[in-house]
Specification:
21% strand; single chain; HIT family, subunit A; disordered N terminus; twelve-stranded antiparallel beta sheet; three-stranded antiparallel beta sheet
């Protein structure tokens, strides 16, 4: 349970130094090196260096003068569904498709006071306009945060009119590359492996924060999805509740058994919907796919989240996931918009049954056509799929056959 008895000012985590100071580097898996620091307004910034990095150990100081961080957003309970809706007005003024010379995710330059003060391989930092957090207080002079935090899961599932809570939690940006354009799929195997190590490290760190119930890494790709930055990046949300999608999953597990994912994997592996299969992972178009393009990627053993993956599973995931994404792009002459959603088990419930998995979905149903959610799907949640999953899997397998092998080493 998260308990805050008084508004207090910015708390420095034990292993995270003040602005400009480099923490002692930490050696992670696959030869990745982690270096933690702080931005000018106190937000956490973590560098993850490739094993073959050309970067030196020093990182530049963030010398910007920044406004105080916005007050932590509030959540309102929808009594009809039990869903918590975050109201985060500060997100209304986010940067929209800036040019390369004003890219806020590029390394800082004399003409571009971006979010990251130094050259990097992979960088993760707290979002300046988050939907969740900061759970604790701000830098000196900032607004107090989390004055009315959730009081545990029982508090959050209690229905009622007019219920509100502070949106404690964390929203982080994960920069896959210092380059202005690209996506996860355009990275090298070594870089992909570094990002996987960062996802695992951040999952463990965020899961340990007070009040966090679920951690969700994801990548939005393409303007059709609503992406506002062309820079290759993803995000991580750390929620103060178990998300509605996972709550429904837990109910299915209660009804069908804790081995549900093992049975699903065996069912799909025996079908014509498999598109890629390795020693540790299988990718398939699910039996009841909703979207014109939908692919799930599951580990062969039960793993609740990234932090629980073994080195060999992380090593195989890097080239296999890159091949899958490049196959998705090979379907058409132009890059395909998608949401790559990495579902993980909640922090405190369902960890023996909810399996880590990727659910990649795209509204693209043709070279120049998108699926829009209209009346039945958007209003009632009653879906109609126009493309049979078996046909979608066949098309993706054919596209993957034309993708050159993904070369390189994962460590």
């Amino acid at each position: 349970m998260l308990t805050i008895t008084q508004p207090f000012r910015y708390r420095v985590d034990v292993n995270t130094p003040a602005n400009g100071a480099d923490a002692s580097p930490q050696q992670l898996g696959a030869g990745v090196v982690k270096r933690a620091t702080r931005l000018a307004d106190g937000r956490e910034l973590v560098y993850y260096d490739d094993p073959d990095t050309t970067l030196g150990p020093e990182r530049a100081l963030d010398a910007r003068t920044l406004d105080l961080r916005p007050e932590t957003a509030a959540m309102r309970l929808d009594a009809l569904t039990g869903d918590w809706i975050t109201v985060a007005a500060a997100r209304q003024n986010r940067v929209m498709l800036p040019s390369a010379d004003l890219d806020p995710l590029a390394p800082q330059s004399p003409s571009n006071p971006s979010e990251i003060p130094a050259r990097y391989d992979v960088a993760v930092f707290e979002n300046r306009s988050p939907a969740f957090g900061p759970a604790l207080a701000q830098a000196a002079g900032g607004a107090p945060a989390a004055l009315d935090p959730p009081r545990g899961l029982e508090d959050l599932v209690t229905l009622g009119l007019g219920r509100t809570r502070t949106s404690v939690g964390r929203c982080e940006v994960v920069c896959f590359s210092p380059e202005h354009e690209g996506s996860f799929g355009t990275q090298t195997v070594t870089r992909a492996r570094t990002v996987i190590e960062a996802w695992a490290d951040r999952t463990a760190a965020l899961s340990a924060l007070p009040g966090i119930e679920q951690v969700f890494p994801f990548e939005n790709r393409g303007e059709a999805i609503g992406v506002t930055l062309a820079h290759p990046h993803g995000q991580i949300y750390a929620y103060p509740y178990v998300t509605p999608r996972t709550t429904r999953l837990l109910a299915s597990i209660d009804a069908l058994g804790a081995d549900l994912f093992a049975r699903i994997l065996a069912f799909e592996q025996a079908s014509e919907r498999v598109v890629l299969r390795g020693e540790h992972w299988s990718a398939f178009v699910p039996f009841a796919a909703r979207w014109p393009l939908e692919v799930h990627l599951l580990p062969h053993r039960h793993v609740p989240d990234f932090s629980a993956l073994r080195d060999e599973e992380r090593d195989e995931l890097a080239p296999l996931y890159l091949r899958l994404l490049r196959g998705v792009d090979a379907l058409y002459d132009t890059p395909t918009p998608y949401i790559a959603a990495w579902h993980q088990a909640p922090v405190r419930v369902g960890r023996d049954a909810v399996r880590l998995r990727l659910e990649l979905t795209s509204p693209r149903r043709g070279s120049d056509r998108l699926k829009f959610l209209a009346g039945s799907e958007a209003a009632m949640g009653a879906w109609t799929a126009e493309i049979p999953p078996e046909a979608a899997a066949g098309r993706l397998r054919a596209a993957l056959a034309d993708v050159p092998p993904v070369e390189g080493i994962a460590r």
